[in-house]
Amino acid sequence: MLTLYLVAGLLVTLFFIRRLRSPITKIPGPWYTVLTSWVLKYHEFTSNRRLYIHDLHKRYGPTVRIAPNEISLASLEAIREIYASGGSGYDKTELYDLFRQFGIKTMFSTLEKQSHSQRKRELADRYAMTNILRDEHVSAIADRARAFVSRCVASAESVDVYVWLHCFALDGVTNFMFSPGGLRSLDSEEDFEIMEELTYHQSLQKNLLHYYLPALAPCFPSCLIPRHSPKTNEYVLRMSAQQQPSQHSLVAKLARKDSPLNHAQVAAECKDHMAAGIDTTGDGLCFLMWELSRPQNTRFQDRLFEELTNADPDTPIDKLPYLDAVVKEALRCAPPIPMSFPRYVPAGGRSIDGHFIPEKTIVSCQPYTVHRLDEDVFPEPDSFNPDRWMDEKGAAQRNRLFFAFSTGGRGCTGRNLAMVEMKVLLREVYSRFRTTIAEDMRECMDIDDQIISSRPQGQTCKLRFSER
């Protein structure tokens, strides 16, 4: 028995020595993060990881230890090193395996950088701004924006824009991918059911269990299995096999005769883009319209109205500076993916922000903190203020720290599509209407964390539309 105690004591001693000798120990952070990741996991399971990490950054600075093998950073140097071209070799962690579709790796869920680059080359031209701004794509988005407005003005006193914005986002991304087979959930009850299937779910904890306990996942009871989406799956599989898609649609490129992707891979890629498109655009627009509708922000809405009504109707969507400022400020305050983008440090380790970090350490930056920590760049960081983007002083630094879509070769592929969709809809709404918070709005609009994305906590945003 004494031998057993001695062996146990030796193992515990070796554990502590190994932890304390790690270079990570020298990085600022709470004492317990040297020994355990359970505190971080607790905050993940309680939907509080983002705020927990942000509070640590406010206490310890731009580099903070959050677990024995994990570092969070919030500086421009770290962003460039980890995510941009200078950070070649920082592969994604296994967290991204949660985003496989039909059990197949997509571009987003591919961990290795080289494999990701090969997949990205297959579809990059479809997401180029020159393709996004084709008349067929912009016309389809504008048609859906008009349908959104029709839905909203039909409700004289109160309309839940959260619902219809997700319909708008779903219709936009599916028309871009599957034209002429895109959805019309703003008009069709059957298509509306697909929006509900993709939008209203609670699966954070279930997905985290699969991430941390993959070996036990096959034994989980049905109540611990993440959501299914049978209607969405059937639609995507059918549309991915259509014989004559529009020449400039995404599926036309992925499913061409000489494509290296088979039907299952095409469907998986399309479903991934579809899910990402509805969440990021729908939630981003919801937070934006909520902010513009708050009483303290009416001056921003009025300034946007002035720009939109004074501009020539043929002014390109990307030539309206205040509209761009409004969108960027909304994405700064509530980025659709506000949480960490985790990566592994490459072989040999790297120095970041003056700290040597060993290989296989998990490093990440989270947009929510990058957009707030440096108050010299973003004064009053928790305040919605589009005017900050109109000031030439400090513009370069603000733009360098704008991290809503990540950056580098693995940044958000759909960024251009999302920005065009948001701007087209906002021009349609705020060139004609004033929005205010409806009297019966009671739900919470705080950011609610999911796996890496976010949404309004109450999944409801009731506004009132008044014609100007």
UniProtKB/TrEMBL annotation:
Biological process according to GO: secondary metabolite biosynthetic process
InterPro entries according to UniProt: Cyt_P450, Cyt_P450_E_grp-I, Cyt_P450_sf, Cytochrome_P450_monoxygenase
Cofactor: heme
Amino acids binding heme: C412
Keywords: Heme, Iron, Metal-binding
Any GO MF annotation of the entry: oxidoreductase activity, acting on paired donors, with incorporation or reduction of molecular oxygen
Gene3D superfamilies noted in UniProt: Cytochrome P450
PANTHER family per record: CYTOCHROME P450, P450, PUTATIVE (EUROFUNG)-RELATED
Family of the protein in this entry: Belongs to the cytochrome P450 family.
Name by which UniProt lists this protein: Putative Cytochrome P450
Organism: Aspergillus mulundensis
Lineage per the UniProt record: Eukaryota, Fungi, Dikarya, Ascomycota, Pezizomycotina
